Amino acid sequence: MRFAVAAVAFWEAHGFAPQHWRKSVDGTLALVHEEFARRLIPDLEVRPEVQIYQCPGAALDELLESPNWNPAE
User: What SS3 class is residue 48?
Assistant: First the structure.
């Protein structure tokens, strides 16, 4: 399984409504399942504004555990 991360504005500009998607702490980035994103953006992997992460995977774990995605409690 893979997930795509991009700016909320990017997703919205491509027709998605990411209000309920997982977002970074500051709300500017959103995470979505890659297969869902490909419904409207079939060339997702060549978009420089999109990062794709394998799940499970160390890179995704590191991202989601970072202060940008995991608010301090």
Answer: coil
CA-wise closest residue to 22 among 12, 13, 32, 14: 32
pLDDT along the chain (73 residues), means of 10: 97 96 97 95 95 96 94 71
Classify residue 8 by burial, with Cβ atoms within 10 Å: 0-12, 13-18, 19+: middle
- 70/13 Cα distance (integer angstroms): 26
Neighbours of 52 (CB within 10 A): 16
DSSP 6-46: EEHHHHHHTT--GGGSEE-TTSSEEEEEHHHHTTT-TTGGG
